[in-house]
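User: Hi! I'm working on a homework problem where we have to compare a predicted structure to a textbook description. Could you give me the structure for the chain below?
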Amino acid sequence: MKKATSLFVLCLLLGMMVLSGCDTSYEPIPTAPGQTTAVPEGSTAIPTGTEPGVTATAVPTSSAEIRIVSLSDPNGTLRVRETPSTEADVVTVLANGANVTVLATEGEWIKIKTADNELGYIMTSYTVAQGQQPTAKPTANPTTGPTQKPGAATPAPDASAYGLPDAKAAVSMSFFDDALFVGDSVSYGFKLYVDKQRNKGDDYLGKSIFLTAGSFGIHHAITAVNVEGSVHPSYGGQKWLIENFMADKKLKKVYIMLGMNDVALYGIEASVTNYATLISRIRAKVPDAVIYIQSVTPTTKDGAKPKLNNTNIYAFNDQMNNWANNNQCYFLDIASVLKDDQGNLPTKLSNDNFVHLADAAFPLWVDYLRTHTN
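Assistant: Happy to help. Predicted C-alpha cells:
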C-alpha cells in the first residue's frame, strides 16, 4: 500500500512539472568553435568564432547599440576586417555615415554587423553614437586648423606649416639618420644610387633605410603581407608593412613616394583615400612620426600611357599636396626638379624613355630633399 501511494505521489509531481512548463534554467551546452549556442526568441546570437579574446554574448535585438561610421573625409570608406587587426583580411568597406550594429567590444575594436548582414571588426574611433552627425568635410584653408589624424600635433591657428616647405639652406646628410624612404621601382633606383655613393665611403643620406620594391603601390601598402601576389618590400629577409617597420626600427621620419602604380589602376580619388589610410596607420604605430609625401615623378613625352600620363600624375600630385596641407604632412615636389618646361621627364634624366631615372636625376632629388625640410 505504501509503495502504491509513493508511486502515485511521484506521478502527481511529474504531472505538475509538465503542466508548469518545467521552468528550469540550464547551463548552455558548450559549442565547437564557429557554432552558435541557441538563444531565446528575440535575441541575436553572436558566433563564438575563432577571434582571440572575444566572448560571444546574446544581444537583445531591442537594445543592440547602433553606431555611425564617421570619417574625416566624407567621401572616404572604412575597411571592415575579418579579425580585430589592421593586418587582417578586408571583409567589406563602409561609406561615411553608414549605420552598424555593435555585437561585441574588444579593446579599441568593435565587432559589428552591417546593413547587409556582414560581420567584421572596425575601430570604435571611426564611429559616433547614433544621433550624432558624422565628421564634416574638412576645409581646404590651413589657417582654420587642419584635420586631426591619430597622434598628429595641431599647429598654431595662423600657421601654414604643412604642405610645401619653403626652400632654405641645405641640411647635413646626418639629418636623414632616422629616416625611412618608401617607394616603388623609381625609389628602388634611387636606393641603388645611394648605395653606390655609400660604397665610396660617403655618408650619403646619413643612415637612412630604404623599403622599396618594383610595382609597389599604396594599395599594396595597406594590404596584409601574406596575401597572394604580395609585392611588399623586404628587409632582412622579411616582408614588412611600413608602419610595423618604422615602429620596429624606431624611425622618426618617413619619405613616401607611392602612387605611380595606383593612379592608372584605381583612379586618383581612390588613391588619395588609400594614402590617407596608410598615413593614419603609420601614426597609430608611430604617433610622433614626421611624414614627407614625395610627389610622383613625371613620364617622358614619348613614354606617356593612356592612363599613366603626366596629366593624371600632376592631378594626383595636386590632390596629395592639398591633402598634406590639411593633415600635418609635408609635401615634397620632387617632380619640379625632374621636368622640362612642358612638364615631361627629360630623356637625359631617364634610363628607359619612360619613368625610371638615370643617375643624373638623383643628385637633383637629393638636393631638393636637403633644401626643403622642416
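For your comparison, note the following. Residues 2-20 form the longest helix (19 residues). DSSP finds eight helices and 16 strands in the chain. Good luck with the assignment!
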